[in-house]
Fold:
Amino acid sequence: MPLFGKSNAPATKLFFATDVHGSERTWRKFINAGKFYNANVLVMGGDIIGKLAIPIIRQKDGGYRATLQGTVEHFTSQDELKSLLERIGTLGFYSKVMDEDEFRTMQADPQAVDDLFHALAKERLLAWVQLAQERLAGTGIRCYITGGNDDYSDVLAVLPRGGDGPVQACEGEVVQLDAHHTMASLGISTPTPWHTPREVTEDELAVVIEKLLTSVPDAAKCVFNFHDPPNDSTLDTCPMLDWTTDPPAPIVKAGQVVLHGAGSQSVRVAIETRQPMLGLHGHIHESPGVIRIGRSVCVNPGSEYGEGVLRGFLATLGEGKVEGYQLTSG
Structure:
């Protein structure tokens, strides 16, 4: 064996996607992406649970009704009900079929509504993990999952940690991707106008990042899987919102929507000072792209989960560098 020269270890191919927000179709595409793109590492970067639970009311005449995206729709057959459930799943919403009396009782009890949402979110996430375990078993493909700011901690708790299965929760940890590279993952974000479940101040995020990075042996060979993108990086550009309105409304000046960078300054400082080989980010759906901050390649693939479209990022990792990459959509 030569003492000098390049390593004979095969390059790692990593596929990254984020912000699927409960969408059944995009999750299935994500799990299939390893085989499709010949990737041996899958990374899901947060905001994995849905935003709404839709009650489907079973009526006395045997039909059903549901209010979907502001429109009351009526259904009579089981085929129509099945089609509705699939559409709700693609949108990333949850659903529950119930009688009129059950609906009225729950509607009057906000805690019962909240409990149902959490139960449905856990049920779907568990089903997703089971599907991924089955599809990836024996393939050599590993799948790492982190939550995002929209994800409730009790729901994320159903993700597997430890063991030898192909699916692993990785938030708050530094994991070994291959012989040369590690990955540090965080899903919390700085404050948003929507007061999502897992938000912290900029100063608090800086403390969490620094604590996590103390476990990184070599930042130059590390992937920073941080849900919040670096501030003013073009990966975080979105409309500036008026936080005093409900819901928050875009700020318009001279007839134009005002845009700004909504990412994290703490994340940017960590990237500028530590110079990881790769930064994986999400959070801002409408700002996909790949940039460099110093030597660090940073990406936000964006999200179109509501249309069932999976936006992703495929990278080939050499020893301490990104040898090639592409944004994907499908």
In short: Residues 117 and 236 are 29 Å apart (CA to CA).
